[in-house]
Amino acid sequence: MASSVITFITSPNSESASAIKDQINKAKELVSEGRYLIAVFEAPNDWESHLPIEAYVIEQTLGGIHNRSADWEFFGNGVIRTYTSKALRYSKAYQWTIVRRTGDKPYARRGSLTSTTLKRNAIPVSDKVFTRDVANNVWHLLADNFKERVTTRFSTLLTWQDEEFFVVELTKTTEVNDRKALVLKEDLVGVPNKVPYFWDNGEVLF
Prior knowledge:
The chain is an alpha/beta fold. The chain has a single domain, classed as Rossmann fold (3-Layer(aba) Sandwich), CATH 3.40.50. The chain is 23% helix and 27% strand. The strands form 2 sheets. It has a 7-stranded mixed beta sheet with strand order 7-5-6-2-1-8-9, with helices on both faces. α1 (17-28) packs across α2. The mean pLDDT is 91.
């Protein structure tokens, strides 16, 4: 069975480098060929020195820059900004980094799936939340049930509903047995605001 993993890594200040690497290694062992390891961790909010978690994810999967592994490839990274549900005040920012174990990509299964299965895996790509938020690499989410929201987004976007999906944390590993469709009605819709840019002489650039 194909399986992907999301791992939530706690604040860099509360865990050692070896503990973080152990968590990444535990997570990557559950990833099958062609599937994903998604690491989510809080982004620093100051100018202090922090453990380089993204570098650890790359190091433990792709290997060193001069000795890259043929078993893994970089997939993408991004940021999630969270907001309180009442006043919609900015709360925290998280980074995500995704690597993929080499092998057939998930969409290679498309031709063998029934129309019922394809319909169950449909993604609401015309929804304003999707076009203005989900389709980008900077997301805006309510802080309430943050982990559940993020898990649903990634599992829906990257895998089929009948595939295994695991959540790996520092002290436990959980399989997501109740795979949910991506419902966006409670998520935030990005509204762009035009900001004028000026030349040094004050004239509007655009």
